[in-house]
Input
Amino acid sequence: MLEFSQNGDERGHLVVVEGNKDIPFDIARIFYIYGSDPDVVRGQHANRRTQFVLINVAGSCKVKVLDGKGNEAVFVLNRPHTGIYLPTMVWKDMYDFSEDSVLLCLASEHYDATEYVRNYDEFVKMVNEESE
Ligand code: TYD
Output
């Protein structure tokens, strides 16, 4: 998890995220997800090349991260100054979106559908082959 400074004063808060300073990569792409129902599961993929930082700038959601080697962890994103860093080749599910959830995603690469691994069994095979 990453904690960003809030730069708060009587006017409110201003959170800054600078590539290669506050997060460990240069930002090539941003996108954001909102209007997802609470029973929706998004993500469900791993990325060969892209690293991400996810920040719920409004509302909340959960992120389940799996390494394909038997380890998994669930993170709650519910503060606009807290993010999660996701390295390459981890499986992620985003779910439990609150009605007001706006999930900001910072990515290290431009979009390339071919670097997404969307089959879980294939992902498990890839990470276990890599470490042999
Ligand atoms: P998808 O990867 O399914 O979203 P999520 O990871 O939240 O489950 O993406 C939804 C659609 O948006 C899909 O048609 C691909 C497209 N898309 C882009 O064109 N560029 C992007 O940077 C992203 C993340 C998605």
